[in-house]
Amino acid sequence: MTSLSLYRSSRSEVPLSPLLRLLILTQLAFNVGFFAVLPFLAEHLGSAVGMAGWLVGFVLGLRTFSQQGLFVVGGALADRYGVRPVVLTGCALRIAGFGWLGYADEAWAVIGAVLLIGFAAALFSPAVESEVARQAVVREEAGAGSRTRVLALFTVAGQAGAFVGPLLGALLLSVDFRAVCLAGAGVFVLVLAGNARLLPQHIPGRERIQVRGGIRPLLRNRRFLALCCGYGAYLLAYNQLYLALPAEVERAAGSQAPLAWLFALSSLLVVTAQLPVTRWVGERLSPRRSTAAGLGMIAAGFLVVAAALPAGRTGTAGLLPAAGFVVLLTLGQMLVAPAARAWVPDLAEEGRLGLYTGALSSVSGLIVLIGSAAAGTLLDTGLPAAVPWLVLAAVPAAAIAVLPRGR
């Protein structure tokens, strides 16, 4: 059976297994706890702790590095020791990290807490993501439904958590930042307790493996590395929500106040439209075509802003291209993210899905780190305003040609 026919194999979805429901709800809770704290961290570090702006940026960069950069470590550990111990250890470290951050009032303590918080995610996230992907493939091969639909539901759960978390954090911030951190830790206490009770010691069909050859076979897997490049281009484009978009909103509106509405628009689109879009696409497109279509849509979003900038409109009319960019970027995300994650099991070595799932994030994160520095430089060079957006549009467009072909 071909990859595409597997995706079309069943129009009638059967209910998710208890394990998949647990893992998807775990992802929801992960993001509720994390995003209850993260949006308010920079302001706390600057005002309450008294850090200089460069140090705040450095601390936030450390968090990203300790998380995304070490995903490959968490994935390899999940392959070696199983999902349960890695998830439970990650949750325990996240609880300790949030608790420490709530009481940290010196730079060294903040840095230690942030590193612990990031490393915790580097443990539990690839373990959960790889097992969701594996279970989705098993479910698809049994004719129970498309793997992309399961992974789309996983994405929706994450977005819902990212939407609810800041609301919880904002509510508790009226007390103080410590209350926010302790609430985040409390969410992970519940996650830890739930997984300790419900996550099986041994998941049928998942064999723990001895690590042989390290990551050398992965580095020789050109098709997987090509997928990482395509996925990295998507993540680099998505990162422009926090880099290029604020600059455009500032130009058009004179302030960044409309950003909150644009971010809410993006989250609302994912929560309401991800599953219908995935169902429609899964019946018609292979993972490669879905990924390519998503990258093309993202490139079109950058072109919308580039085409409108020479007119120099401001106010509500000036914000319409930015809104168009957010819509097209989010629709592209709906196509790329589930398809790319569903593609990884077809490219991974037997028994190394955790390693490959983690490596997808780590390699892509490195691409984003380098690309974001270049994008920031491009935005500050004084070139005509449309030029950076045209260059950014070329990145996802070029990534389409890099995507692996065939099975």
UniProtKB/TrEMBL annotation:
Keywords: Cell membrane, Membrane, Transmembrane, Transmembrane helix, Transport. The keyword Phosphoprotein does not apply. Residues 1-407 form the Major facilitator superfamily (MFS) profile domain. Coiled coil: none annotated. The keyword Cell division does not apply. Its main location: membrane. SUPFAM superfamilies: MFS general substrate transporter. It comes from the Bacteria. It is a multi-pass membrane protein. This is MDR family MFS transporter. The chain crosses the membrane at residues 20-42, 48-65, 86-103, 109-129, 150-171, 177-199, 224-245, 257-278, 290-310, 322-343, 355-379, 385-403. It is found in: Cell membrane.
